[in-house]
Amino acid sequence: MDLHFGDSAPTDEERAAVDSLLGPATSAWEGAEDRSDADLRWARGGREARERRDLLLPGLHAVNDRVGWISEGALAYLCRRLTVPPAEAYGVATFYAMFALKPRPAKVLHVCTDLACAAKGSGQVCADLEERVGPAGAAAEGFAWQSSPCLGLCERAPAALVLQAGTPYDTVPAQRDPRLRDVGASARATGQDRPDEVPDGGGEVTPVRADLAANGAVVRPLRPAVDAAPAEPAPRRQAFAVVAPATADALVDAATAPEDAPDEPSAALAVPQAGQEGLILLRRVGVVDPYSIDDYRSHGGYTALRTAFDIGPAGVIREVTDAGLLGRGGAAFPTGRKWQATASQPDRPHYLVCNADESEPGTFKDRVIMEGDPFALIEAMTIAGYATGAHVGYLYLRGEYPRALHRLENALTQARLRGFLGDDVLGQGYAFDIEIRRGAGAYICGEETALFNSIEGFRGEPRSKPPFPVEKGLFGKPTAANNVETLINVLPILTMGAEAYAAIGTENSTGPKLFCVSGNVERPGIYELPFGATLGDLLDLAGTPTGIRAILLGGAAGGFVRPDERDIPLTFEGTRAAGTTLGSGVILVMDDTVGLPRTLLRIAEFFRDESCGQCVPCRVGTVRQEEALHRIKDRTGAEASDDIALLREVGQTMRDASICGLGQTAWNAVESAIDRLGAYK
């Protein structure tokens, strides 16, 4: 790929995919097929087009989702539309694991081989797939399969995700859900426009269907109506299927026809405590219909937003500060301080970013919230935007979360229709709206400045600090960035009051905390406990078998503890004092059947793959770490001592000199396994 445009041209399908996002090209300068006399007189595009650089990532998604891969012609057309040098766009496209720049089948099966799935047998699943359809990457039976890092489905491990490229459904909301399927088809077949007018026998009318129709949403099927008789073959439609727990036979069936795969279970099944008294953050999951804004409001929804308008932006920040809310993404930075610093910046506009790109192996709490209680996140983002003076919020969502995407799209649609988003939120004179931006498979984009670069249409590489995001963040403007769990904690702070919220937990770690428990436990899932509960308390809830070998806290960037360390307090200060980390709340239990050296090697492979390569300590260090672990995977004692010494030197260098948290934490789990668990002795 060059800095200059070549002779490759997009296909009609690729052109349609880009035009569906950007609109038709208006001149030959933008890639229109016909050159007019006006095009010969002056050039168009320039600064106006370059200001749309942030649409590069959505444009790449549009082509990849429609065709299944991104050709040179498609990339060149997108570059002409946005006035982006092809070499730069190529660098962006190749940065993300979910994009392909070489031909591949429209259906791709992603099989998770990360820590939780490996502990539950993903290796055997991959071996069975190889025997049945061939090696990873090879096209067979109409699809290609490949191993994948964590898919955020750890409670149902081993897990896999099928993505089928094709024509998108013109659907609001767009989701594979039995309650919405075939409604629009039935209505159109009878000449009616609204789902709630379907006559008897024309399809079941559920409250959520009627609610959507009454609020102006267009409800159409995600599968063609079975009784329709198209004049020509129906185009291939976009589809997805989640298979978890996965077997080779189930994966082949789903990859062959993802639109016919069984529906996913309710998000509530990932919450063993669902429906129990005393829950705060999870109290609506499994109780409220995630498609209905009215059901959400009947269970206390949007009470916090009204309180925010009553007390004003400064009052909201004061409540969040007094509550002692710390960031739940792992850094534990005080949220009130971040919001105050953003709000006080004179430079305008301000932006709000929700980091929903939870890619830490073993983490799936944000997915469960977005699938089970999506309106809570929309409300929380609106409050955060109001407090920090932002009028636009970006929700950066993992590309591997299609169901969460569809439910959030529905929630945004209903919120706009009801006046909870838009130019005049609840008639308070405050304008705020949210745009979803999808990631495409890059763990590093969980780092906030790498996320900003990704949204802006650049490679997702971290920026040097200072300046900090509250000063110069997204588009060089003051930006408050928080993850999903942090934001939804704002709702109970405003409804119960800062003092009551701060009374939960400990003095330095206030409020409730969500924990992602997976691996060799009887009841994996998301658990809500107040800060201060011990590791043993949580393990008792999840049900742990005998023969536990190790417990990983905080995910791949965290650390191992021994099974006899059940008294560790699950607080930021408690885990720090114990020489480990709470991180994002991962609790991954491994029994004696899980090989520790192989697990450490998988962690090293993960960091090697996910390093952005920007800084030398991380780019080289993660490779050297993996090489050393390969050499000693079957060694112990004196045979491994030289490589362990090398690992310590490399690990300390990464920790001291890497530009961001990926390199700084890449050695943590390996170090803890050597020192705490006696690995390789």
UniProtKB/TrEMBL annotation:
Entries under SMART domains matching the protein: NADH_4Fe-4S
Keyword Iron part of the UniProt annotation: yes
SUPFAM superfamilies referenced in this protein's UniProt entry, alphabetically: Nqo1 FMN-binding domain-like, Nqo1 middle domain-like, Nqo1C-terminal domain-like, Thioredoxin-like
Region annotated Disordered, chain positions: 172-203
4Fe-4S is among the record's keywords: yes
Keywords: 4Fe-4S, Iron, Iron-sulfur, Metal-binding
Domain NADH-ubiquinone oxidoreductase 51kDa subunit iron-sulphur binding: 597-642
Family assignment from sequence similarity: Belongs to the complex I 51 kDa subunit family.
Stated name of the protein: NAD(P)H-dependent oxidoreductase subunit E
